[in-house]
Specification:
Helix content is 73%, strand content 1%. The protein is mostly helical. The radius of gyration is 29 Å and the shape is globular.
């Protein structure tokens, strides 16, 4: 047992080193696209709501009614894992990538154990897991900060199969129960986990580890869980547009859809062999021409998989690999048409587990060359492929470095998907290149005139450039289709504040807060309005709300200083008090709080506070100067004070 444990430690270490080698140039990559959306949406990222992620009515319970918080998906772990990361890592990019890599290595290590248990081949297990971590097709897991859930999904799917296998071998019912729990957790990661019972069934049927009635009885609980999950989704969450409506939305027939899916599948498979066009989402218009031959191609692809399955009858792992690939395409077939404005889509992370089948097949090919043809040739193939995939992964890691770089690449690879240009426009927007930002935003809305994000950002540019009328028109255009967008109400409130229309500003700020009472930027902007209009009751009310939800010590200090400057001393004290509780080493808070105490004539308390700050940083001359001045004003003998 000790030898086996030691061997597993060596394997895990090898996979970890391999992962570090492949993703060593990704740790400095910044947040991209949905990362910002996640972090800016409290219902998703705040620890206060972490327990609510399991509740399908979490928006209503939290009081958030904004459309940005509403989602047709139910993926609690997709929010819980990044929320925990955000609470620990803050805005340190490299920690997110390191954490995601560690999860990915754990998932790959479990894959190694699973293949080893089923095939009893160390080399097949090691090669398959190594290929899995080397290939850039799953690079999103490490490079995209909020994509950690996909590694978790692989862990739970693999865990469900592995625990069941071990429970059958050891006749351990506890392991069987844990397998069921692991399957449930995989469903909470992503909808594509619904086919996990089929992955499990393929292992049972191909290996024959159970036979007849026992095999069916073993699978029944998994399908009962699946049925319960589907019923829950239909009743409380939904799945978006029903599959039957896809044909109406695209005005297509089943043959055109199959033809489009063949092209989509072909694109994905081509990236496994020649990874030079991998994107987060690949899309294409519905295929109208060449439908017949594309349908023939799909039929030929199905026949090829059946043929390979039959001729590999003596190799169970090859049959399992082929089955997993086919099963993995099933949810993709149903989900590819979910976004009418993007066409037929393929998201590589939908196949984050079944792609393992490809790597098993490739590992088997290398081993066959070694045993049947020439071992040196197999080494050359192995070395060449590994070097090629590592270089490709490094190149993709570089593309993920920032939003402008990645969105430029994405727009070039998938020009049909206009929303990529909205993302590229935002990258230019952030750097202040408004001409290029406008160009890309306008291009993105040519196919979708009601692209909310693009319209809002166009309005923001108009507001920044002083075109208040144009900004107002675009904001109100968004509200015609998205009445619950708190961002628009916030921006209108800010716009009217600049125009001196304070009543209108208050109206829209209050609407934004009603939709999303946890939006801190709106609270601060609205408080500035209330301070300007001397609205004392609202200043006290919303200052308390802001202080209650803000956790950053420096931000609380700045907020306290703003309140103190305007004479709202009680609220300022509350803000400083919480700032110190959040971070007792923040010397700036002690400076500002001491100033406030001195300004109200409490020099003795001010001196005590500044002395605490001086202990934090004895070299800070400000504290010494403040203490001396306060002692003088207080009438203390400075020579005696110095001797003390």
């Amino acid at each position: 047992m000790a030898i086996k444990s030691l061997r597993l430690i060596y394997v895990f270490s090898f996979l970890l080193i391999l992962g570090l080698l492949v993703y060593c140039n990704s740790f400095s990559n910044k947040f991209l696209i949905d990362d910002y959306s996640f972090l800016d949406t409290p219902i998703k990222s705040s620890m206060k709501f972490i327990s609510m992620q399991w509740n399908p009515y979490r928006n209503a319970l939290s009081g958030i009614e904004t459309s940005r918080a509403i989602s047709p998906y139910y993926r609690p772990l997709a929010h819980i894992i990044p929320t925990l990361c955000f609470a620990i890592f803050g805005s340190s990019f490299w920690l997110y990538h390191l954490f995601n890599l560690l999860l990915y290595v754990v998932a790959t290590f479990l894959i190694f154990i699973l293949i080893l248990r089923i095939s009893n081949s160390q080399f097949l297990a090691l090669l398959s897991s190594a290929f899995y971590i080397l290939h850039p097709i799953n690079g999103i897991i490490v490079n995209y900060s909020t994509a950690s859930v996909f590694a978790a999904q692989v862990i739970f799917i693999t865990g469900a199969i592995l625990l069941l296998w071990e429970s059958i071998r050891s006749h351990n019912r506890l392991l069987y129960f844990l397998s069921l729990i692991s399957f449930v957790l995989s469903l909470f990661c992503h909808e594509t986990s619904v086919v996990t019972p089929l992955y499990i069934g393929s292992v049972l049927f191909v290996t024959g580890v159970l036979r007849g009635q026992k095999r069916l009885l073993c699978l029944v609980p998994y399908f009962l869980i699946l049925f319960s999950y589907l019923l829950f989704r239909v009743c409380f969450v939904g799945f978006g547009a029903p599959f039957s409506k896809i044909f109406l939305m695209y005005q297509m027939n089943i043959f055109e859809y199959i033809a489009s899916m063949f092209i989509s599948f072909s694109w994905y498979i081509s990236q496994l062999f020649y990874p030079h066009g991998i994107v987060m989402i690949w899309g294409m218009p519905v295929m109208r021409l060449g439908v017949f031959w594309a349908n023939v191609g799909m039929l030929a692809l199905c026949i090829l998989f059946v043929y390979l399955f039959l001729v590999s009858k003596g190799n169970q792992m090859v049959q399992i690999a082929l089955t997993w690939i086919c099963i993995g395409f099933l949810p993709v077939f149903l989900a590819a048409g979910h976004s009418p404005f993007d066409g037929i889509c393929m998201e590589p992370h939908w196949l984050v587990f079944p792609v393992l089948g490809f790597f098993i097949l490739f590992a088997q090919l290398v081993l066959s060359v070694y045993s049947r043809i020439n071992k040196y040739l197999s080494f050359l193939i192995l070395l060449g492929v590994m070097v090629y995939w590592i270089q490709a992964s490094w190149a993709y890691n570089h593309l993920w470095s920032d939003q402008k770089t990645y969105m430029t690449y994405w727009a070039q690879e998938v020009p049909y998907m206009r929303k990529t240009y909205a993302g590229l426009g935002y990258a230019f927007d952030v750097e202040g290149n408004y001409a290029e930002a406008r160009k890309n935003y306008n291009y993105s809305i040519q196919e979708n005139a009601f692209d909310v994000t693009a319209l809002i950002n166009l309005a923001n540019i108009s507001r920044i450039q002083g075109d208040f009328k144009g900004a107002e028109l675009n904001y109100k255009k968004v509200l015609k289709t998205d009445l619950f967008n708190d961002e628009v109400y916030h921006n209108l409130g800010d716009l009217y504040y600049r125009l001196g229309r304070f009543d209108d500003s208050k109206k829209y700020f209050l609407m934004a807060i009603r939709l999303n009472p946890y939006e801190k930027l709106t609270l601060v902007a609205m408080l500035r309005l209330f301070i300007h209009t001397k609205d004392v009751p609202n200043i006290k009310k919303y200052s308390s709300s802001y202080i209650e939800m803000e956790d950053d010590s420096l931000t609380l200090t700045d907020f306290g200083s703003m309140l103190a400057k305007e004479g709202f001393l009680d609220s300022a004290f509350d803000s400083y008090d919480k700032a110190i509780k959040r971070d007792q080493s923040n010397k700036r808070t002690y400076k500002e709080l001491g100033k406030l105490m001195a300004n109200v004539g409490n020099f003795e308390q001010a001196i005590k506070i500044w002395k605490v700050g001086l202990q934090i940083d004895p070299s800070d001359k400000d504290f010494k100067d403040f203490i001396l001045k306060a002692q003088g004003l207080k009438g203390i003998d400075l020579d005696k004070a110095g001797r003390k």
